[in-house]
Specification:
It is a single chain. This protein has 423 residues and is α+β, with helices and mostly antiparallel strands. It folds into 4 domains: 64-77 and 351-421, conserved putative lor/sdh protein from methanococcus maripaludis s2 fold, CATH 2.40.420; 79-90 and 260-335, Elongation Factor Tu (Ef-tu), domain 3, CATH 2.40.30; 93-126 and 216-255, OB fold (Dihydrolipoamide Acetyltransferase, E2P), CATH 2.40.50; 127-214. It is 30% helix and 32% strand. Strands 2-12-15-14-13-16 form a 6-stranded antiparallel β-barrel. Strands 7-6-4-9-10 form a 5-stranded mixed β-sheet, with no helix packed on it. Helix 3 (127-170) runs antiparallel to helix 4 (175-214). The termini are far apart. Residues 1-12 and 340-347 have low confidence and may be disordered.
Amino acid sequence: MSNYGESLVMPADSSKPDLGSLRIHEGQRAKSGMGRRVLYASIPVVIFGAIVAAAFALREQKPVVEVATAAKPDAERPLTALNASGYVTPRRRATIAAKITGRVTSVFFDEGTPVKQGQLLATLDDSDYKRALEAAKADRDSTQAAIADLEVQLRNAEIALRRAQQLRDSGVQTQEALDNARTTADSLRAKIALAKVQVAAGETRIGVAQQAVDNCTIRAPFPGIVVSKDAQVGEMVSPNSAGGGFTRTGIATIVDMNSNEIEVDVSESYIARVQPGQPVMATLDAYPDWQIPSKVRTVIPTADRQKATVKVRISFLKLDSRILPDMGVKVAFLEENKPAAKGKEKDKGPQAVALIPKSAVRSDSSASFVYLLRDGKVERRAVSLGIDRGTEVAVLAGVTPGDSVVVKGPENLRDGEKVEIRQ
């Protein structure tokens, strides 16, 4: 019994967690609170240090500027009256399309292929149109055969008519028999005339059918270069938009490179400075160091009321293979210097010593000035300005030819500040 009773007493479970071990002593609690206070107190110090470091980095960063070189004034150099930008556009550009709906059976060109006028570009499936042409020819041939038969009958009728006339004159036959013979001959003549008209109509139908066959052949309307291939063998083409996105409306796009010219929009406020035949200096965006002599071909006599501009077309004096359609181009409209009148040279006043871009000139309440670039630093220099020459301005004093002037940069530049030149 005693053994049994002792067996009912269960030992303590050693795996049960001891909650007393989680108790935080007073010393540990004090240390934890002190650590948090130290952490909170250090946050403003860290933020202040970051601000100081950022300000130091910004102070060490150099302003970025763009510079230009002061040019020597040239009395014989044309002045720039106006600057504008536009694009190279060909006067003759055509998207070649078929006159009929059909399936492309062959293509004889690719992008960049030079073509001559009348050169074969592509063909369409012409089997149906050839069948129609053959049917029209068969109708014409059958009508012509009928004419031959009617002519044989007419010759016989004319013989019968002469015989009836003789018999009527001799009193053997009646007038009715003569009239019947004459009617038969006249009827055959009318049938022959109708058949000939039908043959002419058949010829017309043959011409229409032949034209439909010819329309299956697409040729170049003028000499040029293919710049776009718009259809492939097996695709359907149509002069009208049909069949959703499965039908093409064009075969190719051809450009006459000899008709390339420049098209620019000039503000109507400055259009008075542009005249037909005026010399122009063009510069392609793709070749910024290549100046192309040009001239104004025409000023389109209408304005765009929304953009307040007038379209001007400019012709190249000499074309080049590097000039491609849709290239960006900048143009400078030039004006000839007017020679000074005799005896007035001494009254000209101060002469310009240099030419600089207008964007280089700055001003404050006292005078105009520019920033010169010297050994990586900017130097403020007061200038005396002369006449305005379009995008440039003449300098009478303060700048010499060859000086590097800042044309674009921060407004808060300071004299003697180090700068970085934008490449």
